Amino acid sequence: MTTDEQVAVSEEERYRILVDAIADYAIYMLDPTGVVSSWNSGAQRFKGYAPAEIIGQHFSRFYTEEDRADGLPARALHTAATEGRFEAEGWRLRKDGTRFWASVVIDAIRDPAGRLLGFAKITRDLTERRAAQEALRRSEEQFRLLVQGVTDYAIYMLDPEGRVSSWNAGAERIKGYRPDEIIGRHFSQFYTPEDRERGEPQRSLDIVRREGRFEREGWRQRKDGTRFWASVVIDPIRDERGEIIGFAKVTRDSTERKLAQDALDQAREALLQSRKMEAIGQLTGGVAHDFNNLLMAVLGSLELLRKRLPDDPAIRRLVDNATHGARRGVSLTQRMLAFARRQELKAAAVDIAALVHGMADLMQRSLGAAVAVEMRFPPDLPRARTDPERLETALLNLVINARDAMPQGGTITISGRAASVGGAWTGGMLPGDYVCIAVTDTGEGMDEATLARATEPFFTTKGVGQGTGLGLPMVHGLAEQSGGRLVLASRPGAGTTAELWLPATADDIVKATPSPATTGAEARPMTILAVDDDTLVLTSTAGMLEDLGHRVLEAASAAQALDILRHEPTIDLVITDHAMPQMTGAELARIVAGERPGLPVVLATGFAELPAGPAAGLPRLAKPFDQEELQRMIGRVMPPR
Ligand SMILES: Nc1ncnc2c1ncn2[C@@H]1O[C@H](COP(=O)(O)OP(=O)(O)OP(=O)(O)O)[C@@H](O)[C@H]1O
Ligand SMILES: [Mg+2]
Fold it and tell me: Is 402 in the pocket of ligand 1 (CB under 6 A)?
């Protein structure tokens, strides 16, 4: 052997060893007819035949029965022979009959003269890779079906520019677009025009890029232009290098939850507000009630003082001044009591249009020439149930507020309309029919903070001594006490509308009964039992009665009054306070009616908390009362002689 031959042999040998060592590929040769003529270890490993078993056998046995019947082995060789190469993937059989997924290359081998010597065949077992690919494909398919099938969430993809690239059933249901209508379009069209103008769509994608996620709630638009409250999550989709190749967007329609939440917030806010007003009302009412009694004592004593003092103009002026101040105090406490709903509501069916028209002159006088009043009432406006006298005061307050808001003058419109309240949130009113009286001005309006506090007692933006801040509270109190509501709407510069909602009624209007004439008995001196737990008031009442020439017995409680009554058969009349601890004036009156039938009892009351029933029929004296009112009452209840 020459060195050259040695080298050649060893080189051939090296190839054989190399081919043999390759365990991952079956590398073997076929003769021109397809009979196996060599076999490497890879071929043995995954086809299962030892070289001795297979060399000399036809290669078609590696093919499945179907492929053999189809003539695939011969076709493969033919292709390799004519085109130089055959390449395919397909199922092949192992020795044990099991299948594997093979990637096959067959190359024709020719001598330098071009004669076909045979074929080189390289086969790879791709079963695992194929299984993995298949699993991936199936999982992707399942995932796609899953995403497609979800109808409660809009799940879709955007390309890096924000154009829609996939669309599921939920997206179609929630947003209203079919896939062919929306794929390829920019996602900004789901946003409201305002949000688009502010650049919200782009901003949300910028946030995803920067922070890796975007999560928000907001109003979005459906295809038909209606809005829904959307909970939105956007995630980036990245390739293996981390580049963003799109966005995954999940949107939920949370409109119902949002509306329920809003309603709840509103209700909570309203409840808080009404609790606050209730608490302020309690305080105001308590203070006002005590002040009312004090002022009554002051006024009563001043009245007597004036009579008994020498006729000196200087002294008289001082007493007049004190009386004037005390009267102002009385009107303040009256408004406070009205706010606290502690003023009597003499409810009646009221023809609103007639009442307002009847006030026209009075209004025009209080408003001045620069302010015009327009009245608009439909002819069929139902009657409202409220206290007509207090309604007049309330309306006067509203138009004066309107005037104050229009220093340059303007027009105040007073209108009425019928309205029904029902459904979920009624703003604290019972469902039913209402009359809504609106007082609208074109004045300066209120900012949010002022509007929120406008009905609080003592809240005023008018200068010291200009406003008491008790106007709207009084109107509010009347509305609430009537079973309605005061609603204010205002914006700075856009004027104010105050709406007074009052329950509608089908009752007939009762003509005001003129106060009964006196019997003339008031001039006759008698013995009167005065009852009040407040000594100041008691002294004042007793003083006024004595000044009228009566004999007065004083009792500081109902129990003491009963005691006196039982020992004093000469008593002609009882005048008693109502709100007293232990036993009220009304209860006292009931016992008196049992023990001394026919003995007149007058109830002095400061506010409306008088029980219905028998006591409702008792003659009533509203606190504070002066001597004249006291005298008139006596004249009414005492039988003439
Ligand atoms: N029509 C209106 N336009 C603008 N602001 C108003 C209007 N009505 C009420 N307000 C605001 O509400 C506040 C409270 O009103 P409210 O009637 O209770 O008290 P007032 O008018 O200040 O005092 P008073 O009624 O005792 O004269 C006012 O000071 C004002 O700031
Ligand atoms: Mg006012």
Answer: yes
